[in-house]
Write a structure and sequence with these properties.
about 45% helix; three-stranded antiparallel sheet; alpha+beta
Length: about 160
């Protein structure tokens, strides 16, 4: 039986062309995937900050409704760990916190600390710095003069 060109398979040049095409596709697709992954992490960080802003508002409203003191007392004595906890917080998870950060968000953090207090970078719990696995860091500030939550995002681009 004589083999014809049709029965021999691919030539070397055809295989090289296919490999080059696959390389070009990979060169385009991989950076897009990595960019979308970082964008997703930033969206999670922004969502976390938004949830913390809402939690502060709820906590502040409850505090004012119960007349526990003056606005100055609130500003001077409240820190982020007063109203935010991590899921399974080892520092005293009570179930009465305004915001409990879900395990699915905590698992995106670069390290697995046990408490929101572990992320405090100024000692008062008014500034938290949380690194994400993508390399981005969200730094959250509790501005006691407003009171409000502000944040900066680095490394998410």
């Amino acid at each position: 039986m004589k083999l014809t060109r049709k029965d021999k398979g691919f030539t070397l040049i055809e295989l090289i062309i296919i490999i080059v095409i696959l390389g070009i596709i990979a060169a385009i697709a991989i950076p897009k995937y990595l960019d979308s992954k970082k964008a997703a992490e930033k969206a999670v960080a922004e969502g976390l900050v938004g949830a913390m802003r809402s939690a502060l508002t709820i906590y502040y409203s409850n505090w004012i409704a119960k007349n526990k003191g003056t606005l100055k007392d609130f500003r001077d004595n409240i820190s982020i760990p007063s109203f935010v906890k991590l899921y399974n917080d080892t520092m005293g998870f009570t179930g009465k916190e305004t915001l409990v950060i879900d395990q699915s968000i905590v698992s995106r953090f670069d390290d697995q600390r046990g408490s929101i207090r572990d992320y405090a970078t100024d000692g008062s719990g008014r500034q938290l710095s949380i690194p994400f696995k993508s390399g981005g860091v969200v730094t959250i500030y509790y501005d006691r003069e407003k009171p409000a939550i502000d944040a900066t995002y680095t490394g998410f681009n």
